[in-house]
Amino acid sequence: MGKSAPREKPTQSPAKPDLMADLSQVQLQAQSDMERAMKETHRVLKQAIDRAGPKRVARALDISLSLVYKWTQPARTKQNPAASGARNPLDKLLAIFELSQDLELVHFICQMARGYYTPNPLAKGSDRISFVSETVSSLNDFADMLQYAEKSLTNDGRIDEAEAAKLRQQWNRLKGRLEHFIISCEEGHFNAGSEDSDDAEEE
């Protein structure tokens, strides 16, 4: 009897072109945003340094006053070799974030400013967000937080430090979800047939 032909190993199907295109678009947009931000850091830093006072900043950081002033000017780059400024702390912080993509860095800065960071929604086109599912998820998160607080009080009549920290974590997560919800409302991600209506108006 002849040997049967070996079976071919199933090959993994390639990633969908539209998903790869979306990923590439997001990466290009992030790179463009970073390049634009790097051009603006000296202006943002100048506003803060002017408010604090250049001499006070120099003394607090134990650096020369001339370096402080250089931070408030465009830094010398390949695209701008004639610039007289120097890379400032914001440039370096942005570079670290770009390399690490660690949101804890952003959360820490927002916490120091008594705020909270939440990313903008990326949904668009056919990936329209469901209003019902977003609403239910937000309500469930809120109910879970209240239930956890009630359970903590029922156990021993108090909310201890660890339980309070967990409540804060849940609340911050809920604030992020609600901000995401509001931005989705503002940008029309819940709207049905908005693109069709726009086309109809153009006709």
Question: How many individual helices?
Answer: 8
User: Roughly how many Å is the radius of gyration?
Assistant: 26 Å
Shape: flat
Low-confidence stretches: 195-203
What is the average per-residue confidence, as pLDDT, rounded to a whole number? 78
Range of helix content: 55-70%
Q: Write down the secondary-structure element order.
A: HHHHHHHH
Q: Please tally the β strands and state the result.
A: 0
Q: How much beta, percentage-wise?
A: under 5%
Largest sheet: none
Distance between the amino and carboxyl termini = 72 Å
SSE class: mainly alpha
Q: What brief labels describe this structure?
A:
disordered C terminus, 203 residues, mainly alpha, flat, 8 helices
Layout of secondary structure:
Elements: H1 17-52, H2 54-61, H3 65-71, H4 89-100, H5 103-112, H6 131-156, H7 161-186, H8 194-202
Helix pairs in contact: 1-4, 2-3, 6-7
